[in-house]
Amino acid sequence: MSLIRMLAESGRYLFHGSSLKLKELEPRQAYTRNHQTGLMEKDGTPAVFATNVPDIAIFMAIMDKSRIRGEFRTSFDCTNGNGRINVRLSATSNVLSSLDELSGFVHVLEFSDFNKREGKVAEYISLVSVFPVAVVSVTSADLVRKIEEYNPR
Predict the structure, then answer these.
(1) Which domain holds residue 18?
(2) Is residue 153 scored above 60 in pLDDT?
(3) Model confidence over 96-121: pLDDT tens digits?
């Protein structure tokens, strides 16, 4: 079992994925795609976003638009069913064909520095800067879940 998964099982840590190794994570404005208009829209107030699901952080860490040629669309969905968090990861076909070349960093963060985001299954936020307790280098090989081909709804 990987270090990240052992830390996740402890329940004491959350995870933030980035293509950059950061000493401090500062609040940033998140955006999400409006599926009706296709436009990117602000998603809440600026915050540091983290998750308790390692695969989401790993996915976010390796999805670096600057390393991909052509169309770049990625998505993850979380649902809560039967007491389990169900996660679906997806990316466009050209991203999928480049997975072996992608890497990034998962920042391990203290759970106590975050609040659960209302209405979200596996998303936590901090409105102030946070400092990682560890930073782990990751690749697509660290994912447990398979990334599916992106299919807009």
Answers:
(1) 3-149
(2) no
(3) 777 888 899 999 999 999 999 988 87
**Token duo for residue 116:** 């659960």
The predicted-structure confidence for 38-59, as pLDDT tens digits, reads as follows: 898 999 999 999 999 999 999 8
Query: Hunting for tokens 């990316």 — which residue is that?
Result: 91
DSSP labels, 58-127: HHHHH--GGG--S---EEEEEEEETTEEEEEEEE-HHHHTTGGG-EEEEEEEEGGG-EEPTT-SS-EEES
Contacts with 37 (C-beta within 8 Å, 6 or more apart), sequence order: none
- Judged on CB neighbours under 10 Å (0-12, 13-18, 19+), 60 is buried
Domains of the chain: total: 1
Backbone angles phi and psi of 39, in degrees to 5: -90, 150
Q: What gap in Å lies between CA 16 and CA 61, rounded to an integer?
A: 8
To the question of pTM greater than 0.90 for the whole model, the response is no
